[in-house]
Amino acid sequence: MTVCLLLLSAVALAAAVPVPRALTRAAWPERDPVVALWVWQCLVATVLLCCLAALVLGTAAVFHTVRDHVFAPAPPAVTAAYDLSAAPVWAVALTLLLAGGAAWTTAMLARELVEARRHRGQARAHLRERAPDLPAGLPASRGPLLVLEDEYPDAWWMPGSPPQLIVTTGALHRLTDHQLDAVLTHERGHARARHDWLLHLSTALATGFPRIPLFAHFCDQTHRLVELSADDTASRRCGHLTTALALIELNQHRGVLSCASTHRLLGERVDRLLEPQPRLGPRHRALTTTVATLVPLLPLLITFAPGLTALS
Question: Most buried of the four, 42, 53, 234, 286, by CB within 10 Å?
Answer without folding.
Answer: 234
